Amino acid sequence: MTVHRTNPDGLAPASGFSHAVTATGSRLVFLAGQTALDARGVLVGTALPEQFETALANLLGALAAAGGGPADLCRVTVYTTDVGAYRSHAAQLGRIWRRLAGRDYPAMALIGVVRLWDEQALVELDGTAVLP
Question: What's the pTM value of the predicted model, to 2 decimals?
């Protein structure tokens, strides 16, 4: 599998994401939205960074079970009920991302939503990966 991340000079500097990702491989993995639910189905944490860490770990766990790793992620969408809180915690969220997923950033989008399926959830992540 080949993944190429493109960050053109004519666009704002990419920080914590890639502007474009091209991938060739033989299997697409579509990852369902993951919140901060633990293995019992109980929401973990009340603060956004805490929930983000669990949601990302859940997303990466689903990807690992499908045979992939963080570098295989081509697209991640982050849904949050509080964009302001996400922005104010951006540095901390970046550290969590790098610790769990490294520096191979996928193309990403952040979308503000009114609420998520689990009413106490503050963040949800879904994604697409390409495997060899």
Answer: 0.91
